[in-house]
Amino acid sequence: MEHPADSRPRFSLVLPAYNEEDQLPGVIESIQNAMTNYHGHRDDIEIILADNQSTDHTAQLAHAAGWGVVAEPKRCIAAVRNAGVRAAQGPWVGCVDADT
Question: Which of 56, 67, 68, 72 could crosslink 21 through cysteines, CB 3.0-4.6 Å?
Answer without folding.
Answer: 56
